[in-house]
């Protein structure tokens, strides 16, 4: 797989999948950083109606992110688990980068939501009940598909 010809612009990235398909995407903004990578809101160049959250890390340190992608792909069509629609390799600043394409959650994580302007650190009980229900439904879907903590 040759990804060395990919574009090297700060905002436009070209990725290639393991099947050889290519996609160019535009980094709209930085969303955050976690233990395994950095996350950007992105838009495919040829489809401006789609928005994804792309989590990326250097390919040589991508084993955890690859595992995350493999686990998420088992939860396709689960409404309460963030959807992963694939992964691609790109080259940025001369380095191979592993990227996973996630369903974009406009409000970010539950923690982001708690501290946003709307809630200012405290979620009212009625809304908290709704979020708790969503978390429990997600957990149920995860258990139904047989994921155990041994696989992490
Ligand atoms: N699918 C998404 N949609 C929108 N924002 C996201 C999405 N995934 C991650 N983010 C943003 O990027 C940040 C980093 O996410 P990431 O999943 O890498 O780490 P985390 O889950 O917050 O922490 P850790 O990896 O340490 O458990 C999040 O805090 C969130 O603000």
From TrEMBL:
**So where does ATP get bound?**
55
* GO MF assignments: ATP binding; protein kinase activity
Q: Which PROSITE patterns match?
A: PROTEIN_KINASE_ATP, PROTEIN_KINASE_DOM
Top-rank taxon: Eukaryota
Q: Which SMART domains match?
A: S_TKc
> Boundaries of each Protein kinase domain copy?
25-152
List keywords of the entry alphabetically.
Answer: ATP-binding, Nucleotide-binding
Q: Name one GO biological process term.
A: signal transduction
Return any one Pfam family short name: Pkinase
Q: Where in this chain does the entry annotate a coiled-coil region?
A: none
Recorded protein name is Protein kinase domain-containing protein
